[in-house]
Specification:
The chain has strands spanning 27-32, 35-43, 51-61, 66-67, 70-71, 73-76, 81-85. By secondary structure, it is mainly beta. Strand 3 (51-61) and strand 4 form a beta hairpin. The protein starts with 26 loop residues before the first strand and ends with a strand.
Length: 86
């Protein structure tokens, strides 16, 4: 299980606080050795009700207490894909 350590302010209306498990599945994946691989999902305030999924992976660090996920996510303007951002 992943839980929020420092949730962003825009998640407060959703009652997300420290220790809250991401309610809508912001990450789906698995551990492979010393890293996690899977799909991340983001929610945009510019496109309410829509989600964007993209591939992510990253190492497990700090004695197995932190996972740093990295991926290239689409960028939208406002709800149309215009480019990608790493």
């Amino acid at each position: 299980m992943f839980a929020y350590e420092h949730p962003k302010d825009n998640l407060r209306p959703l009652k997300v606080k420290r220790g809250t498990e991401p309610a809508r599945g912001t990450f789906r994946g698995s551990r492979r050795g010393t890293c996690h691989e899977g799909v991340a999902r983001i929610f945009s305030k510019k496109c309410p009700g829509e989600t964007t999924e993209y591939d992510v992976s990253g190492p497990i660090v700090h004695g197995s207490t932190t996972v740093v996920l990295v991926g290239t996510r689409p960028v939208y303007n406002p709800c149309r894909r215009t480019e990608s951002y790493t």
